[in-house]
TrEMBL record:
This is Peptidyl-prolyl cis-trans isomerase. The keyword Isomerase applies. The lineage of its organism: Bacteria, Pseudomonadati, Pseudomonadota, Alphaproteobacteria, Hyphomicrobiales. Pfam families: FKBP_C. Signal peptide: none annotated. Its EC number is 5.2.1.8. It catalyses: [protein]-peptidylproline (omega=180) = [protein]-peptidylproline (omega=0).
Length: 113
């Protein structure tokens, strides 16, 4: 498995390379994901709910780390994203679940484009 770090500081680990259509900016994508804090505490998972999550890629509907980290994935692929605070929820955190300035870890599987 290879890990790359983007200029913004996002770390992308390619767990499984997909072989379906590629996710590009402007596309509506559907993913399964699980998110953890760096202490290992899981804070959210679409898999636990049994409900995939859909969003428009590159449209600012999700945190920047997702817009950047899902782009270029192919359907069937799985990536682990290490998202620094400035690409996540920053100094404000989120909903009492994600503390301020938290680095986030996500495993994202691209289900559809």
């Amino acid at each position: 498995m290879t890990t790359t770090t983007t200029p913004s500081g996002l770390q992308i680990e390619e767990v499984t390379e997909g072989n379906g259509p590629e996710a590009k900016a402007g596309a509506s994508v559907k993913v399964h994901y699980t998110g953890w804090l760096t202490d290992g505490k899981k804070f959210d998972s679409s898999k636990d709910r049994g409900q995939p999550f859909g969003f428009k890629l590159g449209g600012g509907q999700v945190i920047r780390g997702w817009d950047e980290g899902v782009a270029g994935m192919k359907v069937g692929g799985v990536r682990k994203l290490t998202i620094p605070p400035e690409l996540g929820y920053g100094a404000r955190g989120a909903g009492g679940v994600i503390p301020p300035n938290a680095t986030l870890l996500f495993e994202v599987e691209l289900l559809g484009v």
